[in-house]
Specification:
The structure is a single chain. By secondary structure, this protein is an alpha+beta fold. The chain has five domains: about 160 residues, RuvA domain 2-like (Arc Repressor Mutant, subunit A), CATH 1.10.10; about 150 residues, Tex N-terminal region-like (Orthogonal Bundle), CATH 1.10.3500.10; about 130 residues, Nucleotidyltransferase, domain 5 (2-Layer Sandwich), CATH 3.30.420; about 140 residues, Tex RuvX-like domain-like (DNA polymerase, domain 1), CATH 1.10.150.310; about 110 residues, OB fold (Dihydrolipoamide Acetyltransferase, E2P), CATH 2.40.50. The chain is built from 29 helices and 16 strands. The strands form four sheets. It has a six-stranded mixed β-sheet with strand order 7-6-5-4-8-9, sandwiched between helices. A five-stranded mixed barrel has the order 12-13-14-16-15. Strands 2-1-3 form a three-stranded antiparallel β-sheet. The longest helix is centred in the middle third of the chain and has 48 residues. One of its GO terms (molecular function) is mRNA binding.
């Protein structure tokens, strides 16, 4: 993605743009916010800023920088919208005072919703409100006099349109009420109420729609009701409602199942209203009180109820996207398994299978039937798997089972083959579960057809995708459209454009900060590197095919489309290993025959080429090689400059990658239930017992609804402990102080109270202590109800008596 400077319109909003950023990213100072904005204007991407411009942001995480950039872009858009709205609206007005008033109202807007509300008042063909009708009758001047404490004789305002004092009073009441509602102080209080920053009581309620109630007995409606059973008839205070609940309400509303609203007590608004003790002319007090309460009931309360609902929905969407981003970020940080052959199985009544080399190259693809009675594969399927195992020349195999429908049955069938020693004895065979979200979607894309050809059955391509996700997760996941990754909180309920844009940013940051080898990275990976796009990525691959491997980072400048700006943004994230033909000492620089600067040992580090000069002087000063510094050699110098200290940090910077899945085999003398990523046996949910200890893996799905849930949610973490269903660790277990109160129903000291509730604004419950996707955590089973497993995390699991064989997972 080429960096392009952003062209902004003249800034006309009352607040400076820095204030918008500071409001959302409180860690910033005004000067740092200004510095970040300058980088955004230049078109710098998040990953580049995060790694190489800490002098500007002061150590912000990529997520916070993304948030700052999103806020900046939203503010720029708001400013542009306000400018165009001022031109459009004031062009329709004749009175100078009215033009000034509307202009100031627009300049004071904090978000697009406010601009939209004002614009609707003056839109062609818009419904004439009582207040606007009164304005058309020339009553705005008298109404303002009332609010300024003056007396107004309603008799003097009688006209042909308003034939009685009663007519005048009714029109004046609507207009005064409207002016009260639009008062700046009233709007400030309203904004606090809408953003749940006050003690005003608001209740969220939901019910079935009339259409659904009419069909209440049909089978289809019963299924839908079951799906939304937890939010139908909901009554909860707005302050305590969780974002995942709002997502469910919105999803049910979109499907025509649920109608939900926010209800506000007018008396609570009255207590906070700036006009509660407003002083008016003594002869106008009765009229003013009538207009005041009319304003609260007719304008303010409905406005607040809509605003709170809109705020809850927006907050829910933002939270969903944030959870989505964090989970995907963790997913991309998983190291692949490169030492084993992979048999990938896409479960179903017909099992799609692929046999892959350790590098992901396809050896064979096939499909066979599954018998649900046993459960097992048909005889043909068993023979296919046995024959594939014989082709590994003695190397071990891992069977990657997709986590879709019938995944547990498929795992059981593989487990049975392992226990029956169906595979060659000299080969170690285990299996694991791999998220299959988007695999079938990818198999239908042009990219898949280009890779596999038009004749390959697209159903089999999904199996290949599942297997490659185990071998090289990041390289495979970048091929999948974000809405199909299944890594969010009700992600299908939120704005698809926002979701995709967020994931694109997360992917670019994650791929860049992990880094890729310039000579090995696929086109799909390269186009997600900071500073590159699909065109420049294709040109890099084309250059490799024509010229052979890159000799250095500097050679990138010879690729079509890579100018100085692109090179600055991308080069630090692309590594080049030492060329085989170089036999000179690694600490020297070289020149290639065509004059391009040759390979440097710094090309294997995260030091940016712009800083090579400083780095080489530092290396000489320390009398060490790059390799010695990278490996952690003691730096005895204490008088290093901040710039030199940053170089040392970059030289030692390595991607924070989770280790690949491992098979852990426990000694038979330790009868501890274990649940590892790599398994040899399956265990049934019905055989679980309360207080049993497991080592589980934080996953990405749970099948209590028809669609995939998130891994880390606002209500908990789902953990795979090797049975049909994932267990849930409630979010209350991840407080900053790690409090773990006792439960009445169990002697387990680590179990939380069953009624523990975490407020969504509780600072003691956040992501800092929550495990990430792919992490292995030790848990105790707190309770089992139907197919729901309640888990509690423990720091030091104690062995429990069990007949379950050790080393099962």
């Amino acid at each position: 993605m080429k960096r392009a400077a952003l062209i902004e319109k003249e800034w006309i909003l009352n607040k400076p743009i820095e204030d918008f950023v500071l409001k959302e990213v409180r860690e910033l100072t005004f000067n740092r916010a200004r510095g970040l904005i300058a980088l955004f204007k230049e078109g710098c991407e998040t990953a580049y800023i995060a790694r190489y411009r800490e002098d500007v942001h002061g150590g912000l995480s990529p997520e916070k920088i993304r948030k700052a950039k999103d806020t900046y872009l939203a503010a720029v858009h708001l400013n542009s919208k306000v400018a165009s709205s001022i031109t459009t609206i004031t062009g329709k007005l004749t009175g100078l005072d009215e033009k000034r008033a509307v202009t100031e109202r627009l300049k004071g807007c904090d978000d697009m919703e406010e601009v939209s509300d004002i614009t609707k008042e003056f839109a062609p063909g818009s419904r004439k409100t009582k207040a606007n009708i009164a304005r058309g009758l020339g009553l705005e001047g008298p109404a303002l006099k009332v609010l300024n404490g003056e007396f107004v004789d309603f008799c003097s305002l009688i006209t042909r349109e308003m034939k009685t004092v009663r007519d005048v009073e009714e029109n004046m009441k609507a207009l005064v009420a409207d002016l009260i509602n639009k008062d700046e102080e009233v709007r400030k209080i309203a904004l606090k109420i809408v953003k749940l920053q006050t003690n005003v009581r608001m209740t969220v309620t939901s019910k079935l729609t009339r259409e659904v109630e009419k069909k209440i007995e049909t089978e289809a409606v019963k299924k839908v009701r079951e799906r939304y059973r937890e939010v139908i008839g909901l009554t909860r205070t707005a302050y305590h409602i969780m974002s995942h609940t709002v997502s469910a309400l919105n999803r049910g509303s979109e499907e025509g199942v649920i109608a939900w609203k926010v209800e506000l007590n007018p008396s609570d608004v009255t207590k906070m209203h700036p006009f509660q003790k407003k002083t008016v002319h003594r002869n106008m007090q009765n009229f003013f009180q009538s207009a005041y309460f009319y304003s609260i009931n007719t304008y303010t309360v409905p406005m607040l109820e809509r605003g709170v609902k809109r705020f809850l929905s927006k907050s829910s969407e933002e939270r969903s996207i944030t959870v989505f981003g964090r989970n995907v970020e963790q997913m991309f940080s998983q190291k692949g398994v490169h030492s084993k052959y992979v048999i990938a199985l896409d479960p179903g009544s017909i099992v799609k299978a692929a046999f892959l080399e350790p590098n992901g190259k396809v050896i064979d693809m096939d499909q066979f039937s599954f018998s649900f009675r046993a459960p097992t594969f048909d005889s043909r399927g068993i023979e296919i798997l046995k024959n594939w195992a014989k082709q590994t020349m003695g190397k071990d195999i891992v069977v990657a089972v997709g986590n879709g429908s019938n995944t547990y049955g498929t795992q059981t069938a593989v487990s049975t083959m392992i226990q029956n020693e169906a595979f060659p004895k000299e080969i170690d065979v285990c299996f694991c579960v791999v998220p299959e979200h988007g695999a079938s979607k990818y198999s239908c894309t042009d990219a898949a057809r280009e890779e596999f050809g038009e004749d390959v059955d697209i159903k089999l391509i999904s199996a290949v995708s599942i297997g490659r996700r185990l071998i090289d997760p990041m390289s495979e996941y970048v091929k999948i459209e974000p809405q199909h990754l299944g890594k969010g909180q009700y992600q299908l309920s939120i704005n698809e454009k926002s979701l995709k844009g967020k994931l694109v940013d997360v992917v670019r940051d994650r791929v860049s900060l992990i880094g890729v080898d310039l000579n090995l990275a696929s086109e799909a990976l390269l186009r997600n590197i900071c500073g590159l796009n699909s065109t420049t990525a294709a040109e890099i691959v084309k250059y490799r095919m024509q010229k052979g491997r890159f000799k250095s980072r500097a050679e990138l400048k010879k690729v079509k489309g890579i100018g100085d700006v692109s090179f600055q943004q991308c080069s630090g994230f692309l590594t080049v290993s030492r060329p085989d033909e170089l036999d000179q000492p690694a600490k020297k620089r070289f020149k290639t025959p065509d004059g391009v600067a040759g390979w440097s040992p710094l090309d294997t580090t995260t030091v940016h080429p712009d800083h090579y000069g400083i780095a080489l002087k530092l290396i000489s000063k320390l009398n060490l090689t790059v390799e010695q510094i990278v490996s952690g050699a003691d730096i005895s110098f204490t008088n290093l400059t901040p710039e030199e200290e940053e170089i040392i940090k970059l030289l030692r910077d390595k991607p924070d990658l989770k280790p690949p899945p491992v098979m852990m085999v426990l000694a038979v003398s330790i009868p501890l239930n274990t649940c590892f990523f790599f398994q040899k046996k399956c265990r049934a949910l019905k055989n679980l017992r309360v207080n049993e200890v497991f080592l589980g893996t934080v996953t990405n799905t749970v099948s209590s609804f028809s669609e995939a849930y998130l891994t880390i949610t606002d209500f908990g973490v789902f953990v795979d402990i090797g049975v049909e269903k994932d267990g849930l660790v409630h979010i209350s277990n991840y407080r900053k102080n790690n409090e773990q109160p006792k439960t009445k129903s169990s002697n387990n000291k680590n179990a939380p109270k069953s009624n523990t509730f975490v407020n969504k604004n509780d600072p003691e419950a956040d992501f800092k202590n929550v495990p990430s996707v792919g992490d292995q955590i030790e848990v105790i089973i707190q309770g089992i109800k139907g197919d729901r497993i309640s888990l509690v995390p423990i720091k030091e699991p104690k062995p429990q008596s069990s007949s379950f064989a050790s080393g099962s997972r």
